[in-house]
């Protein structure tokens, strides 16, 4: 049984060590009772309840979960909305939650059953207690309006206790909620995080993925994610490869396992077998592309670079990302490499990484430097274009720019200009 969904008796036993300190219970109850007895503005009550929730959930030693329930109940009496009998959800979303009118209109259709601000007020206070700003809360409610219907003591608070038990800090939980508000309503969020953290290396790596897609929070772990991970491992991908693949293609683990199998089969047809070092890049290149689109791009590569079937296979195996390059980008590269540099199709086919590098920011400027140095006898004529292009920027400058400061004092300046697209007609000596 999932840790989050155990019997109530087990739930009480699990949280007891985290929330046990009678010394803090009495002062907090006194604060809550005093607040409930004294009429106050909605904002003041919101801040008081935020303080109570925050201290209960994140102080080093806190009171039992039952005290949390009593305190939330005690502080829920004075509502932000002054007249519950005339409660209008759209106005509440705009005036209290901070949504825009269009956002509120859209969200209100999911909350039409609410007749009182009691639950929404408690949820807003709880979110503020996590450390979310007003803008953060507005964004969260905009993404997941149904969160306003959640029970704070029976759902939200227990989720936070479980996440804290995984080692997440208050800012961690706040960031998680901001990126994927539905996590607080997810029945298995704690067990999912327990699985995802080691898979992606850390909680912060998992957050990187959530920035692009929150599907991992809502997807079925046993029917989709785990089978896909197991299949990719069987294909020879390690944990780091799987994590990087998912960050680049967030839907990779949450799609139907048959589609993952079809992508691997497509990579194999292109010449990248299971277990190959380029399999991750190949899967990233063909992910969610139709067979027709891939075939069209392969044909374009053959025609543009004058490659045979064997040569295009070599090129795609060496740099699968060429399949993701636009036709215009590939055309510009072919014109430069063939017409200006004078390379042969077979040379490019066996060094396809050149096609994935920045043409204007790297390949073209380095060609001009190399040409200038060779024409003026400043460098070994055997130094290849490919070698110069593949050097890191630091090595390129150290080996081909710095040694010629006296013979060509403007070389560094001209190279910098070329990297910005301001290619001089001729590199200068004086």
From TrEMBL:
Keyword presence, Transport: no
Pfam families xref list: mTERF
GO MF term set: nucleic acid binding
Alphabetical keyword list: Transcription, Transcription regulation, Transcription termination, Transit peptide
Transmembrane segments: none
Biased composition range(s): Basic and acidic residues: 1-14
Region of interest (Disordered), residue spans: 1-20
Domain of life (superkingdom): Eukaryota
Keyword Transit peptide: yes
GO biological process, one term: DNA-templated transcription termination
Protein family per UniProt: Belongs to the mTERF family.
Protein name, as recorded: mTERF domain-containing protein 1, mitochondrial
Native species: Triticum urartu
């Amino acid at each position: 049984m999932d840790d989050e969904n155990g019997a109530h008796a087990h739930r009480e036993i699990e949280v007891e060590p985290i929330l046990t300190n009678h010394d803090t219970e009495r002062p907090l109850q006194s604060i809550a009772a005093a607040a409930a007895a004294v009429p106050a503005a909605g904002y003041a009550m919101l801040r008081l309840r935020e303080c109570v929730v925050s201290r209960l959930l994140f102080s080093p030693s806190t009171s039992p979960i039952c005290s949390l329930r009593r305190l939330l109940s005690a502080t829920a009496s004075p509502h932000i909305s002054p007249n519950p009998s005339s409660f209008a959800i759209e106005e509440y979303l705009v005036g209290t939650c901070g949504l825009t009118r269009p956002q509120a209109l859209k969200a209100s259709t999911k909350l039409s059953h609410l007749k009182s601000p009691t639950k929404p007020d408690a949820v807003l206070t709880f979110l503020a207690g996590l450390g979310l700003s007003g803008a953060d809360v507005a964004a969260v409610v905009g993404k997941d309006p149904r969160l306003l219907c959640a029970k704070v003591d029976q759902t939200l608070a227990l989720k936070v206790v479980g996440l804290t038990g995984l080692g997440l800090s208050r800012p961690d939980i706040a960031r998680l909620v901001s990126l994927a508000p539905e996590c607080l309503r997810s029945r298995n969020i704690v067990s999912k995080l327990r699985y995802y953290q080691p898979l992606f290396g850390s909680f912060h790596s998992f957050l990187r993925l959530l920035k692009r897609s929150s599907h991992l929070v809502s997807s079925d772990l046993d029917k989709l994610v785990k089978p896909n991970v197991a299949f990719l491992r069987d294909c020879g991908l390690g944990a780091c490869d799987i994590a990087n693949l998912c960050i680049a293609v967030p839907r990779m683990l949450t799609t139907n396992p048959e589609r993952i199998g079809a992508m691997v089969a497509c990579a194999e047809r292109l010449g990248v077998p299971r277990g190959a070092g380029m399999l991750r890049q190949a899967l990233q290149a063909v992910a969610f592309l139709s067979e027709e689109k891939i075939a069209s791009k392969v044909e374009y590569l053959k025609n543009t670079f004058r490659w045979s079937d064997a040569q295009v296979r070599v090129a795609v195996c060496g740099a699968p990302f060429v399949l993701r390059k636009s036709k215009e980008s590939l055309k510009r590269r072919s014109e430069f490499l063939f017409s200006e540099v004078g390379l042969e199709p077979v040379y490019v086919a066996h060094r396809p990484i050149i096609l994935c590098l920045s043409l204007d920011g790297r390949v073209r400027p380095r060609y001009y430097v190399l040409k200038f140095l060779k024409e003026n006898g400043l460098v070994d004529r055997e130094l290849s274009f490919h070698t110069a292009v593949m050097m890191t920027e630091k090595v390129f400058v150290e080996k081909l720019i710095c040694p010629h400061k006296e013979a060509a004092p403007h070389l560094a300046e001209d190279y910098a200009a070329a990297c910005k697209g301001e290619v001089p007609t001729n590199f200068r000596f004086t």
